[in-house]
Write a structure and sequence with these properties.
Order of helices and strands of chain B: HHHEEEHEHEHEEH
Number of helices of chain B: 7
Number of strands of chain B: 7
Largest sheet of chain B: 7 strands, mixed
Distance between the termini of chain B: 62 Å
Strand content of chain B: 15-25%
Largest interface: A-B, 71 and 60 residues
Oligomer: heterodimer
Largest sheet of chain A: 2 strands, antiparallel
Number of helices of chain A: 8
Structural class of chain B: alpha/beta
Strand order of the largest sheet of chain B: 2-1-5-4-3-6-7
């Protein structure tokens, strides 16, 4: 674990650095995959950047609105520090809505655009797992395996590394499928299916997880939902192709 | 012609050798049923027994999901602050120092929170590595009324692996660290995390 990167007297939070690097890399991937799929590169890039920017701003504003009493006394706090203080759900909804309306306005084709966006999403998820490994609260179940990591004297599953491997396999699946797909969207759906199947599997080895009242892993349930939806759409797309 | 139409046309063609590599609808449906059955079984198998999960986390370490390392430090008034004595109520430990500018910025937030959540949470500002002669006038100048344990030799700071100031630990009533915040924290984030601690307790 490496929560901070010490450069002389300055200690930089590694999680923040990884997030910034992840965003830059994800937007680069959008550009490259859009070019590869012969899409309009600037418009596809703008779609991703707009969705991201609106999402971040909306997440911050929703948080500010919720704790307005605290911010009213310190207006500078609205813009600094930005290392925390975001409401995830409103940000996600606003970001997706902005991307949706922008895509409609620019008449972007849905399935090819999804093909271009999914690898960027996977890169962003890889960055989240890496940040969690370096500085996050996540850790794996106890395990005395060859590849277990020592965390404060206890050997555990390197669960974030498993997630990174899953993400890389999903990216490989996308890369392979994009050459052979008969209809646009199949590569994106296949990559989503591989990633969600992987997360469904490896989340069992995560120790501090969000659980339902009955003790089920929330991530596993969400992953199964995405996996089934992806496979259902792949079946439907296969029918269309036939 | 727009570039997107070109892409659709190309993707309709079979791959290189004339044989498409994409599975049929039947194969995908079979995979879907298999995923549903295996996935559900795996979720059932992975279900956490809450007692077992709690037992797994019962190791002492300065990170989220672990028991906060215990310590006893002297306060400015000569009393002793012991973390284990606080068990049963949420605790916020803020590591700071007089020379640290962001610490100076956030101290009023902790002061305000200590008044707002008085009786619901214990807030303590651990001074890291400074003599009492330097800390006392600073505390008076800033008007700090919450407990200030003195970690003059940085023993507790090292045990909590505090590499940069300020760093704040949010500890649940059960003694388990819920969150670690490195760097400056603003009033709203502080309140959000404290309310989360209180709800969890």
């Amino acid at each position: 674990m490496l929560p901070t990167l010490d450069l002389g007297p300055v200690a930089l939070p590694t999680a923040g650095l990884v997030y910034i690097l992840g965003i830059w890399l994800a937007l680069t991937v959008v550009e490259r995959s859009a070019a590869r799929l012969a899409l309009n590169v600037p418009v596809t890039y703008n779609l991703a950047a707009l969705g991201l920017a609106v999402g971040v701003i909306a997440a911050r504003l929703a948080f500010v609105a919720r704790y307005w009493d605290a911010y009213r006394q310190n207006l500078v706090g609205i813009v600094w520090p930005l290392t925390s203080g975001f409401s995830l759900l409103p940000g996600l909804i606003a970001g997706l809505a902005a991307a949706f309306f922008y895509a409609r306005a620019k008449r972007l084709p849905a399935w090819p655009t999804l093909d271009a966006l999914v690898p960027a999403l996977l890169v962003a998820l890889l960055a989240i797992s890496l940040a969690d490994f370096l500085a996050g609260p996540g850790f794996g179940e106890r395990a005395d395996l060859l590849w277990s990591i020592d965390l404060f004297g206890v050997r555990r599953h390197p669960v974030q590394i498993y997630e990174i491997v899953v993400g890389l396999v999903a990216l490989l699946a996308w890369r392979r499928a994009v050459h052979s797909q008969r209809l646009p969207g199949q590569a994106a759906l296949m990559a989503l299916a591989v990633y969600s199947a992987g997360r469904l599997f490896v989340d069992a080895y995560r120790a501090n997880v969000s659980l339902t009242a009955d003790g089920y892993h929330v991530v596993q349930i969400a992953s199964l939902g995405i996996l089934l939806a992806s496979l259902g759409l792949l079946a439907r797309r296969a029918t269309t192709a036939d | 012609m727009p570039a997107t139409t070109k892409s659709t046309d190309r993707s309709l063609k079979p791959s290189g050798n004339g044989v498409t590599a994409t599975p049929s609808r039947f194969t995908w449906t079979l995979l879907l049923v298999g995923a549903l059955l295996l996935g559900s079984a795996w979720i059932l198998y992975s279900r956490e027994d809450s007692a077992a999960a709690a037992a797994d986390g019962l190791t002492e370490a300065p990170t989220a999901g672990h028991i906060a390392p215990d310590f006893s430090l002297e306060l400015l008034n000569g009393d002793t602050f012991s973390l284990s004595a606080m068990r049963g109520q949420p605790v916020v430990l803020n590591f700071w120092a007089t020379w640290c500018p962001p610490c100076r910025v956030e101290i009023p937030h902790f002061e305000q929170a200590s008044r707002k959540y008085n009786g619901q949470v214990v807030i303590a500002g651990i001074d890291d590595g400074e003599p009492v002669t330097r800390v006392r006038p600073f505390v008076q100048e800033m008007g700090m009324t919450y407990p200030v344990p003195l970690d003059e030799d940085s023993v507790v700071s090292r045990r909590y692996q505090v590499n940069s100031l300020p760093t704040t630990f949010f500890i649940g009533a059960d003694g388990v660290i819920q969150n670690v915040h490195i760097g400056l924290i603003n009033q709203a984030v502080l309140e959000e995390k404290i309310e989360s601690l209180i709800q969890g307790s």
